[in-house]
Amino acid sequence: MSKMEDLGRLLSNYSYTDVAATKKDVVDCLKQYKALAYRVEEYAFNDGTVKQLLNLKGTIPVRYKGNTYHIPVAIWLLDTHPRYAPLCYVQPTSDMHIKVSMYVDHNGKIYLPYLHDWNPAHSDLLGLIQVMIVTFGDYPPVYSKPKNAAKTEVMPLQQQQQTPYPTQSFMPQPPTSTQSPYCPYPQQQQQQFPPYPAAAGGGYGGYGQPSGAGASYPPYMPQGMPTAGGYNTGYNPSAQGTGTITEEHIKASLVSAVEDKLKRRIQEKVNQCHVKDSIVQGFQLGSRDEPLCEEP
What we know:
It holds the Pfam family UEV. One of its GO terms (molecular function) is ubiquitin binding. Residues 3-146 form the UEV domain. Helix 1 runs antiparallel to helix 2 (19-32). This protein has helices at residues 3-13, 19-32, 113-116, 125-138, 157-160, 247-289; strands spanning 36-44, 50-64, 67-77, 87-90, 96-98, 142-144, 170-172, 188-192. The longest helix has 43 residues, at 247-289. The protein is of the alpha+beta class. It is 30% helix and 18% strand. It has 2 domains: 3-226, Ubiquitin Conjugating Enzyme (Roll), CATH 3.10.110.10; 245-287.
């Protein structure tokens, strides 16, 4: 039995309402993105309901700053497909974290306008994946854990020939090995790149269910990248001894200015009191020197 015949049988066995349309959508998608594979697995909804649903798991190619990276995803098709939009997730590997953003939550669930506005008349899996690729190219959904945080694992020889994913969110360089069906990721450089989701048990390279939350969500400028103009935020003028005005000079100047202002105000008050006393004394003296009126 061919894979396509098997797909049709699975859809019928699991009560998909539109087997023909769903089968065509999946077949067209798999022809374009060969790193994806379908299977039927249990999906647990928020209300506790569990259903056997067809899903597509694997990686999709994403261009980020001139390099291509393969992002692990899982696309679950409801039994009403294509009437209702699929449920989509990024699935970081064990050495990656999810990068939370407006498009991906801490569980790895994907939110896109394309999904929100899903219309069975013109929406399909190919269009969905293309939107993911463009969106993730601007907002990478995963970043790598630091090397010292990743557990050492025994890897097959084929995988050992790959260069590792970048650590500490640094952007990996272009892959240097073709030994694996997925694009490897080289050692960290001076740029950063968010990590990639992990998966448990699957037939496409060990990608599993979405893991915990990742780092906070940027406009996503990778951490550690230099700011405009190359300004060093750790620069301390007071330690340079170049004779320029330092923070201590400014503080001393402000204190001196405040003291001078207080002294001037006190002196003004004292002067005002002296003037008042002089006026009162003059008035009293004038009253004593003025002759009394004589009786006529």
